[in-house]
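hiii so my PI (J.) wants the whole complex modelled not just the main chain, which honestly fair. so below is everything: two entries, each one labled with what it is. i double checked the lines twice but i was tired so who knows lol
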Amino acid sequence: MHDQLQPTGSNSNVVHARGLTRRYGEGATAVDALRGISIDVRSGQLVAVMGPSGSGKSTLMHILAGLDKPTSGTVEIAGTEITELRDSKLTLLRREHIGFVFQFFNLLPMLDAEENILLPLSIAGERPDDGWLEELLRKTGLTDRRSHRPAELSGGEQQRVAIARSLITHPTILLADEPTGNLDSKTGSEILELLRDSADAYHQTIVMVTHDARVASIADRILVLADGMIVKELIGSSASEVLEVMSTLG
Amino acid sequence: MIRVALKGLLGRKLRAALTAIAIVLGVAMVSGTYVLTDTIKAAFSTVFSTVYKHSDAVITGKSAIGTDNGGGGNTQPPSLSGSLLTEVQHLPGVALASAGISDSARLIGHNGKVIGRGGAPGLAFSYTPSGQRFNPLTLIRGSWPAGPGDIAIDEATASRSSFPLGQTIGVVARGPEQRFRITGIVKFANVSSLGGATMAVFTLPTAQQLFHKNGQYDTIDVAAAHGVSPRRLVSEIRPLLPASAQVKTGQQQAQQATKDTSGFLTIFQDFLLAFGGVALFVGSFVIANTLSITIAQRTRELATMRTLGATGRQVLRSVLLEAFVIGSLASVVGLFLGLALAKGLNQLFVSFGIDLPQSGTVFATRTIVVSLIVGILITLAAALRPALRATRVPPIAAVREGAVLPPSRLARLGSYPAGVTIALAIALMLVGLFVGGLSTGSRLLAIGLGTLALFLGVAMLAPTLVPPLARVLGLPAAKLGGAAGSLARGNAARNPARTASTASALMIGLTMVTLVGVLAAGLRTRFQDSVNQLFVANYAVTATDNFSPIGIAAEQALRRVPGVEVVSGVRAGRGRAFGSNMNVTAVDPGVTRVMALKWQSGNPSTPAQLDGSGALVSKDWASANHLHVGSPLSLQTPSGTVLHLTVRGVFDPPKGGSQLGDLSISTTRFDTAYPNPQNLYTFVNIQGGATPANTGLLNMALSGFPDAKLQTKTQFTHNQLQGLTLLLNLLYVLLSLSIVVSLFGIVNTLVLTVFERTRELGMLRAVGMTRRQIRRLIRHESVITALLGATLGIPLGVVLALMVGVALKYPVFTVPVGTLVVFVLAAVIAGLVAAILPARRAGRLNVLEALQYE
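here's the output for the full assembly
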């Protein structure tokens, strides 16, 4: 079994964020997307961030990924404070520590499944670990589809390619943005199971933003956001409880 | 619907501007050409009407062989006899008649070299106080020349070469350099620049002596008595004239002179317009491609309009309207840019030694009309196909994720249309090149249309060639550029039609450049071979400009150099035989020791036996006119003499041309038949051959002849090829315009591609691509596209050159490998330059926004 990276900092939390606020615009028209959020994610946890539209969950994830900068507050990823990093340093940090899964898969159409999976290594100029590639292909059930291009793959298969692509670099943390948002419910469930499976099998830390209430059955923790704040934290909750919480928030 | 189209255009300003540039440059070339040639024409017309302004009638010599603009040799018409002036002066209708000399003389600068650039003439006139009424020149400072040592020169030369009043200046006319004191500075009224021409004015007796025209004149200007019309004056004068003279009214004379120059200027104009045409053709590719891409990107938008009730016809109209607006704006900008370009073109020609007179800029209505119509029509024609495709976007595409444009009807036919177009192109070119009995005009038309069709055909075929070619051409990128390189390689083949169209625009320019380069290399090789075969002299002497004939006094001076074994001058003039005008040369017995002639009939002693009536003819000319040794032929000289000649020898000149014309006579006969004989070449053999010491000796002998240039065989070959080299460079510069247009095409495609792949670029950044890697990705794609253009264009150019070569019975076909490598490198650099802006835009994308981009 492949062991994933140990957290580099003294803190065993791979994500350590404090007092995050994010304000868009200025003056009277300013919008506060985040209004003071602090979270810690322990290594190997699968955390789901839920909330209605406009609750700030996407902003939170973008800030954790270093794609957006908080108005105030700090974010440590694998022990590195990232809010003040320059673009090139951030790029390298993403290469090393962060894997991405997007709602619209974002695969390159001219590359086949295997090439898409290996893309982050190729960008970083690193040699692929053949054993790890085969393991991921097996895990995602793509061994027979490895030489197909995205146009020849179903939505679920494309998302599985994207998950394998995010895992190929052994990221410290995998960030998934609505990974089931563009899939039918059966395929969506399969993808959620794959993510849970990856967290277990590879001790992979995963933070996922989602609308999908079924995520409750697989998440270790669920953070519910509303109006830029964490309004509830559920640990190992059932789906019905999540749905209930969601409905009270409208 | 119209408002939607216009608003859409405003929303895509950068794209509209980049599209427009392709048309702006082509239109600017068209407009600039018209402005430049109109301005030059106007200047010439002003010059001639000024010259003859006060003359009611003008008497000049009349060449017995007609107006003749042939190359090589002295083409001056015969001079007028001195007695004619007196006779004219005694006519009742004549108030005043004044005779003068008009010839050419070189002024010598402080550096001992001939003043004047390239082929600009050195004009020489005579001045008489009695003829002041007819004088087109204005005295600015000093006084008119009055004595044998006096000269007046033009203001431009005086200031450019810093010759103040009172100083002496060297002049080369027929003989060695002579010095004159500058008594006056003159100016040609109303003309801002006479180009590179210099002017020298002498007293009439001095001019007659200087040009060996004692007792003779070149022109007689006549003013009519009161009440006598110019027409009547001319008819009064005409009976007095010999066959070698003619009389015209001042106005007719000015018109004739203008017409003679405008013939040359029309060719010049067509030549430049052709480059504008190529640039516009390339521009049409760029526009068609840009519009295709924008329409593909707007599929969703167009479909939405269809769901809202817009008809296909409305969509078509809105796209064409957009093209019309872009075309109109671009044409207007191009039109005015042409005014600046005209100045630039003139500078270009001046730097290539073609310095033509200028007056105030002429901006004719024709220029405006043609530029606008051509620009707009080409834009609309290029927009037609993308517009038709836009009409076929189904309304359902509005709600589909990732909707794409349905393939065009043509595309469904595969490569058949391309094959048919190429076959048609080749057929047209073969007709133009090989079918007999066609006029030059229709030949050129067939070849031109064939070439256009060939470009279209290859461009149509290109989408099928792009994927395999991109894979090969992208190899270096994939090897060197890491992930960015391999992705670029994939991207280049991702939308073959788009890449093909972008590369095709570059292909056109590269094909033309290659065609020119290969033909020039062939000419060069052939000429070098011919010099290697013929040239057995130690030295050659020509004019400093390499092509003008020079006085024979230089030859005589060389004969006096100690150690000289042979000095053999090749005289040159024009003559008429078998109904057409031709170059006539003259040789002396020594010619066989300096030129290794290949004899078909005759032997090295033949030139010594030419005497008064012998002729030496080239093999081809002999067979064309059924001549052999012993055949009689008659040759008419410009002064009217008819020489009855007999063929004594037939020589076989090398394919690269020879220094002897098709017909040569003996130097002694030439010197009696042609007034003021001049040498085109003078060959020298000296004891010890070409050595620094001998070079010094000979140059010393030539020190009195600043217009003569001594050169060894290598220098001679180089100098004689200088004209070709200049022409070649000029063609390269003019063709680079269409390459620049295609460069904008690459920029355009890349900008649009970056725009289209925004989300993808965001993903790449998110998974760890640095800005540098993103820029590299775009650069590599650009270079691969440019290399595709080179891969298509260079072989096409070689094939075209081969076809032209076969048609011209061109035995030496040289592929200038070095030059072609330079072209490939130039394409790579072009690709890098084109990528600068798009790569920066791609690198600057905000990752977060890019990821959320739809």
